[in-house]
Amino acid sequence: xxxxxxxxxxxxxxxxxxxxxxxxxxxxxxxxxxxxxxxxxxxxxxxxxxxxxxxxxxxxxxxxxxxxxxxxxxxxxxxxxxxxxxxxxxxxxxxxxxxxxxxxxxxxxxxxxxxxxxxxxxxxxxxxxxxxxxxxxxxxxxxxxxxxxxxxxxxxxxxxxxxxxxxxxxxxxxxxxxxxxxxxxxxxxxxxxxxxxxxxxxxxxxxxxxxxxxxxxxxxxxxxxxxxxxxxxxxxxxxxxxxxxxxxxxxxxxxxxxxxxxxxxxxxxxxxxxxxxxxxxxxxxxxxxxxxxxxxxxxxxxxxxxxxxxxxxxxxxxxxxxxxxxxxxxxxxxxxxxxxxxxxxxxxxxxxxxx
Length: 355
Ligand SMILES: NC(=O)c1ccc[n+]([C@@H]2O[C@H](COP(=O)([O-])OP(=O)(O)OC[C@H]3O[C@@H](n4cnc5c(N)ncnc54)[C@H](O)[C@@H]3O)[C@@H](O)[C@H]2O)c1
Fold this sequence. Notes:
Elements: E1 6-11, H1 15-27, E2 52-59, H2 69-72, E3 94-95, H3 120-127, E4 131-134, H4 141-153, E5 157-160, H5 170-178, E6 182-184, H6 194-207, E7 211-221, H7 224-246, E8 254-262, E9 269-280, E10 284-295, H8 298-316, E11 321-322, H9 324-330, H10 340-351
Parallel strand pairs: 1-2, 1-4, 2-3, 4-5, 5-6, 6-11, 7-8
Antiparallel strand pairs: 7-9, 9-10
Helix pairs in contact: 1-8, 6-7, 9-10
Bound molecules: nicotinamide-adenine-dinucleotide.
């Protein structure tokens, strides 16, 4: 049976986009699970990564705009590792409006293109895009909302990988519902996620009767996104992650999670530090001091493939508004918080068409 391609447009051709497009090339020929190390689902709802087709992309940097997408993903300031040669996409990256895409800390890193701005919603319509994937910097809150508006204008589903409050905002969900389009978000979960690891560790300890007294989790990264976070979204990210970690304990403890710093020589690598202190039998003290090292952009790849395919399922079923099973499975700030176990169950039921 031939499956029609899932036509995806990208807002932002940064490190995350680079990992996704390299992943497309990397996994497209895999037919067996044992060949697809690193991908959680080779097939999801019968859909394979090779069924995903990128049809348009928008950016603002002159090293990316006007270049074939296969070239743009390797242009500076992107520093995600190159793991594979990518075949030409056959289209050029379009210029989008800058708006708040560049912050005080990233203005020396991003070189704004002087090419004319494209009509984004018209391009989405012309290319037949079904889904617009928002991969703008986390500080680009207004530009992210503007791209959500373009998705509505062009009859596209919207995926918000950034922490801008869109899918978690009832007013936006209502607008997508009225337009009979799916929306999912906000803030993509990583495959090897520091927040998920932190929550799982705390849950395990507290389930075994340990009383957690204090814990923190700190991140250090070297991508452009870490630099932007430092200036504009450090507080939002810290609030979202702390709230999420707090929900894993049945009592109050001193918790700080998701604080960030920027170290340029780490490039696209990220070090996550975990520190946990608690009391167990007869108040004996315990302490965990842990470091997790990952590469940032590939950490989004597997989850993005799941989200894209799940949204295609939602489109085929003509579902509209916030698609909760996808939001809770793949995003840190969904419209409604549920436990990891419930999120997994909801997503599996959704894919198997039990919901
Ligand atoms: N593991 C991950 O990488 C991960 C996980 C969860 C969430 N996210 C989120 O995904 C988003 C992208 O992350 P990234 O590491 O690729 O960031 P990045 O900084 O590498 O890429 C952002 C891209 O957007 C472009 N841009 C800026 N303003 C624009 C505008 N107005 N229109 C079009 N393009 C514009 C930049 O030039 C850049 O190419 C961030 O919001 C991040 O928080 C990433």
